[in-house]
Amino acid sequence: MHYPEPISKLMESFMKLPGIGPKTAARLAFFVLGMKEDTVLDFAKALVDAKRNLSFCSVCGHITDVDPCQICQDTSRDRSMICVVQDPKDVIAMEKMRDYTGLYHVLQGAISPMDGIGPEDINVPSLLTRLQDEEVKELILATNPTIEGEATAMYISRLVRPSGIRTTRIAHGLPVGGDLEYADEVTLSKALEGRRELS
Amino acid sequence: MHYPEPISKLMESFMKLPGIGPKTAARLAFFVLGMKEDTVLDFAKALVDAKRNLSFCSVCGHITDVDPCQICQDTSRDRSMICVVQDPKDVIAMEKMRDYTGLYHVLQGAISPMDGIGPEDINVPSLLTRLQDEEVKELILATNPTIEGEATAMYISRLVRPSGIRTTRIAHGLPVGGDLEYADEVTLSKALEGRRELS
């Protein structure tokens, strides 16, 4: 006899989440016991609602509770630009910035031959369909600055080139607030390569 | 527009848990979206069940789904010994050891004048009632080796002394597998003080 069954079941559920081991699960489960019943019920409801009511936008692939998503529906946005990102969280990061008013396309991953992920396994075909249908003038490739992200950007760029749509890649360089001394050589080399005239 | 509402609500719920900030909450919430629906429903049910079906044992104060708890109900256990601990998790730790067959008493805290916690705020009165009613011969004080835990053990020991019940305190010393070199001086002093004849 270790934990009473309801608490060990709750611990098992917590342990299915990433980065939560037996000790953290026990701590969280005991914390839940000390929470108000309403708060726990809200938590349970939020879990079920998130799972049941969220899906991927049929246009851009972003996570949404309405289809098409609010961004795709927003008529005030610039429909001539599509920013291609790997993950719904990247859309959130871009939106927090408030500088971008175009549309998005969420790939839900990146091309990775090592993991057997090809262009058909991520949302590349739907991107090509969008480019045929819509009045798109610029495709901003904002995949991650990793090997997979770079390869994906390169692949899409070559695929789109014949259509005459302008394809751009977000800049690589030193992060704002960073320190030259601690920058890795690849970043530094990219920063030097991407240098611009001071006006 | 940042996150769709269902996911931001789920993130808020995760953020109410200890040690979970906005970034971890987002990671967990997105992970939940990728889980099977059944698993998510089980998680939600586990939360509600744990909150609704668990209470504290009316005898020993341990967390339980039946009252009195399974340990108090177990007739094979030695009813002449009560081990006093601060927390239900301490009972679990003791039970994992499998060496102790007596009963428990969970204080749900320790005396701490700094935090305004006196003997009446923790399960000391119910312990005294148990000592009058039952055939208890030994009280093992297994509160934590902290200032509050020591003070609580000392307090209970003085309170119980007139009744003639044997009160013992678990040993302090070097943890097994520990290193003398890295032991703090208080632990080392306790270890020296508690030295025993080798037989």
From TrEMBL, chains A, B:
In terms of Pfam families, this protein maps to: RecR_C (PF21175), RecR_HhH (PF21176), RecR_ZnF (PF02132), Toprim_4 (PF13662)
Q: Mind telling me which CDD domains this protein's record contains?
A: TOPRIM_recR (cd01025)
Which UniProt key words apply to this protein? DNA damage, DNA recombination, DNA repair, Metal-binding, Zinc, Zinc-finger
The segments annotated as C4-type zinc fingers are 57-72
Tagged with keyword Transcription = no
Q: Which family does it belong to?
A: Belongs to the RecR family.
Protein role: May play a role in DNA repair. It seems to be involved in an RecBC-independent recombinational process of DNA repair. It may act with RecF and RecO.
Tell me the protein's name. Answer: Recombination protein RecR
- What organism does the record attribute this protein to? Planococcus maritimus
Instruction: Write the gene name.
Output: recR
